[in-house]
Design brief:
Number of helices: 10
CATH class of the largest domain: Alpha Beta
Distance between the termini: 40 Å
InterPro entries: Gfo/Idh/MocA-like_OxRdtase_N, Gfo/Idh/MocA_oxidrdct_glycsds, GFO_IDH_MocA-like_dom, NAD(P)-bd_dom_sf
Oligomer: single chain
Organism: Antiquaquibacter soli
Bound molecules: alpha-L-sorbopyranose
CATH architecture of the largest domain: 2-Layer Sandwich
Number of domains: 2
CATH superfamily of the largest domain: Dihydrodipicolinate Reductase, domain 2
Radius of gyration: 21 Å
Shape: globular
Largest sheet: 9 strands, mixed
Helix content: 25-40%
Pfam family, one: GFO_IDH_MocA
Order of helices and strands: EHEHEHEHEHEHEHHEEEEEEEEEHHE
Structural class: alpha/beta
Protein name: Gfo/Idh/MocA family oxidoreductase
Strand content: 15-25%
Keywords: NAD, Oxidoreductase
Length: 391
């Protein structure tokens, strides 16, 4: 393969997502044939903490001023792992400064921000820059196998799609406030955090778009102790005075795909016992698939073409070298985990930069998802009336 210049990355944010992205930048060139990549700078607000995180997660330097970092000539990629309210400002500035950009999902906190980001990307794309939104579950090998089965017509015309993402880390009323529970920083709650993943996956796996949705959002626990956690808002000590929660705890929707299938969507962070339970089911005229993130190395496939006496869902263990991305890891039969999806995502991104081919998930995909989320909120305000997803 022709040599390609080393791509130097600066990541902004070093909490949960910064940590997840760091391990991916650290491993991607070791396991995949991609352009050389260097973890150049890790950026955060607290100089001492970000320096410690940089040393631990393999970054050459740390810094506290992202504006200064995006102007540096020796940085090629800006990776935005900061809370949602900072995505638009940083991503647009980085694109204007000539950088390739990765943005953690959801793309932004509002449709208006996502539209501005897409406009900035379109201008940058004409200059040869690339950008993605990190919907990392597209890069679960079993999800890619599912997408290919649908694309190859093995399911036939689709009738039903059911997608849910259930977690329980907010079930305890004593779990403290964090940026994820404030509208001004997170944009929404489970809707944006988890709903963005499944809205993207439904559209990605089926190759169709969500056209209209009727849905709702609700908040079960309206106040929580202040005293934010330091770990991406997931764990913490809290203990401060009660503060109002300004985002949803759960959201749902019934939608239509462009091809006519009916879609059920459900997300919550208060389903006790569900740790990272994202499921996707697709039922077609000729076949069906089921996936569960808590068993991410498996895909269940029902092939209507099987003989009548032999039909049944069969478990495909997506652990073989022939499966997407899997061959880069361990010998056949050895499982992979959640963190690998980030490595796969960055491998795809780096190669799209090298080959100058379209990068995905694109900012247009991110905007499309944002419009689905906005339609669910709008429907919720209108007593669950159906709302068309804007084009
Ligand atoms: C928290 O709900 C969270 O970490 C999400 O923010 C991630 O996107 C998801 O992958 C796991 O759950």
């Amino acid at each position: 393969m022709a040599s390609y210049k080393t791509l130097r990355v600066a990541a902004i944010g070093y909490a949960f997502m910064g940590k997840a992205h760091s391990q991916a930048w650290r491993n991607v060139a070791a396991y995949f044939d991609v352009p050389p990549v260097e973890q150049a700078v890790l950026v955060g607000r607290n100089a001492e903490h970000v320096a410690a995180a940089a040393a631990r997660f393999g970054w050459a330097e740390s810094a506290t001023d992202w504006r200064e970092v995006i102007q540096r000539d020796d940085i090629d990629i800006i990776d935005v792992c900061a809370p949602g309210n900072m995505h638009a400002e940083i991503a647009i500035a980085a694109l204007e400064a000539g950088k390739h950009v990765v943005v953690e999902k959801p793309i932004a906190n509002s449709v208006e921000e996502a539209e501005r980001m897409l406009a900035a990307f379109e201008a940058a794309s004409a200059r040869g820059q690339h950008a993605i939104v990190n919907f990392n579950y597209r890069r679960v090998p079993a999800i890619e196998v599912a997408r290919r089965l649908v694309a190859d017509g093995r399911l036939g015309p689709l009738h039903h799609v059911r997608a849910s993402y259930l977690q329980d880390w907010l079930n305890d009323p004593a779990t403290p406030m964090s940026w994820r529970l404030r509208r001004e920083t997170a944009g929404s709650g489970a809707l944006g955090d988890l709903g963005s993943h499944i809205a993207d996956l439904v559209q990605h796996v089926t190759g169709e778009s969500i056209d209209a949705v009727s849905g709702g959002v609700t908040t079960f626990i309206g106040e929580r102790p202040g005293g934010d956690s330091g770990d991406g808002g997931i764990k913490g000590t809290g203990g401060g005075a009660l503060e109002k929660v300004t985002v949803d705890d759960a959201a749902w929707g019934t939608a239509h795909l462009s091809g006519g299938a009916v879609v059920q969507l459900e997300v919550t962070r208060l389903a006790l016992g569900c740790k990272n339970a994202m499921t996707l089911e697709v039922y077609g005229e000729r076949g069906s698939i089921r996936f569960d993130l808590e068993n991410l190395n498996e895909l269940w496939f029902f092939d209507g073409a099987d003989g009548a006496g032999e039909q049944g869902f069969r478990r495909i263990l997506v652990t073989e070298a022939d499966h997407p991305w899997v061959g880069a890891w361990w010998p056949d039969g050895h499982i992979i985990g959640w963190e690998h999806t980030f490595v796969h995502q960055f491998a795809e991104f780096l190669n799209s930069i090298r080959d100058d081919t379209p990068s995905s998930p694109s900012f247009a995909d991110g905007l499309r998802v944002q419009r689905v989320l906005a339609a669910i909120e709008e429907s919720s305000r209108r007593s669950s009336q159906a709302v068309r997803v804007a084009e």
